[in-house]
Design brief:
This protein is α/β, with parallel strands linked by helices and 344 residues long. Helices cover 42% and strands 21% of the residues. Strands 1, 2, 3, 4, 5, 6, 9 and 10 form an eight-stranded mixed β-sheet that branches. It has a two-stranded antiparallel ribbon with strand order 7-8. Helix 5 packs parallel to helix 6 and helix 6 packs parallel to helix 7.
């Protein structure tokens, strides 16, 4: 068990102090009752102390039990202040979609308004806004290298924030982007993923046997790019790796065939949409190709199904612990009222 607010557990230490204070008050009360009883006998009054003595034998044990229940109740309520939580294995039905963005320098081209990058981000935002229940969405960005910038999640705000942070830079390696997306999918589909952001090397695993392209329908990659590639590895070779794992790549073309001229560090570079390269990547994986301007956001999810995974998730126990404390407190109250006619 862990606690979200562990510093508040100091309240548990106050319970024994409260018990000591209550016992001191109870001793003083008994001493006063005894004094009053002695005064009654001295003045020839009714022997109330005798009746109290007869009644105290049966009620003493009840009073002690009620006091123990009250102390236990306050301990539980003090523990609840720390907001306890436990790790519980929970099954869920889940599909995984990884939005993979080309953030190379060519994505700053303005042959589509306002820029290719902004058009890609707008299309991806529309996809996230149509996210159905049971689907987690991740974000990968690549230029000459690749990085998973958002682990697959059902939190739309987190995904949209990751998309908004993207900006173009450096060269282009479609292959690196696809490899990073495959890694994000494997991480998301593991039953209990380790820390997503880690510098530890992954444990070696056997290469899975090839399956039919598109047969793993619980995961898919949506690749936003202008298709221009100038870095290793070969996009077609990496697309075959995705195909062997049964994962579709849906490519989204951003830009125009006519293209435009970019000024990159003082060099004039012609950049245009390479639809043929993007179509080839998608066809190898039994995926589809669409221009960004023709994208139907909800259609991205049409071929995506869900499968069973088991997650170790932190479940907050505050309400449960507080309810147990309240139950003990009510039990002590009813017990004391029934046997002694007063509150504990």
């Amino acid at each position: 068990m862990t606690f979200q607010w562990p510093l508040l557990l100091v309240a548990v230490a106050l319970v024994p102090l409260g018990v000591l204070a209550a016992r001191s008050i109870d001793r003083r009360r008994r001493a006063r009752v005894a004094d009053l009883g002695g005064l009654g006998r001295a003045t020839g009054g009714p022997a109330g102390g005798t009746r109290g003595a007869r009644g105290s034998g049966g009620s003493g044990g009840t009073s002690r039990l009620a006091a123990m229940l009250v102390a236990g109740a306050f301990v539980l309520l003090a523990v609840a202040l720390g907001r306890p939580q436990a790790s519980v294995s929970l099954p869920r039905i889940e599909g995984t979609l990884v939005l993979t963005f080309d953030v190379s320098a060519s994505m700053a081209a303005d042959d589509v308004a306002p820029t290719r990058m902004e058009v890609a981000k707008a299309a991806a935002t529309a996809i996230v806004e149509h996210q159905p229940p049971g689907v987690v969405v991740g974000v990968v960005a690549f230029s000459d290298g690749a990085l998973a910038v958002q682990a697959p999640t059902s939190d739309q705000a987190a995904v949209l924030a990751a998309i908004a942070r993207l900006a173009p830079s450096h060269g282009t390696s479609l292959g690196q982007g696809i490899l990073a997306a495959l890694g994000a999918i494997a991480q998301a589909e593991s039953d209990t993923p380790a820390g997503y952001y880690s510098n530890r090397s992954a444990a070696p695993t056997a290469t899975p046997p090839p399956v039919a392209p598109g047969s793993h329908d619980a995961a898919a990659i949506v690749l936003f790019s202008d298709g221009e590639n100038n870095e290793r590895p070969d996009p077609a070779g990496v697309a075959r790796i995705a195909a062997d794992r049964g994962i579709r790549i849906q490519t989204i073309g951003v830009g125009t065939a006519a293209g435009t001229t970019l000024d990159l560090d003082g060099f004039k570079v012609q950049s245009a949409l390479d639809e043929a390269a993007l179509r080839h990547v998608s066809e190898l994986t039994a995926g589809t190709y669409q221009p960004a301007g023709e994208l139907e956001p909800s259609a991205v999810y049409d071929t995506l199904t869900r499968h069973l995974v088991v997650r170790d998730e932190a479940v907050e126990l505050t309400a449960l612990v507080a309810a147990a404390g309240l139950a003990l407190l009510l039990g002590a109250t009813f017990l004391s009222l029934a046997r002694t006619g007063r509150l504990p």
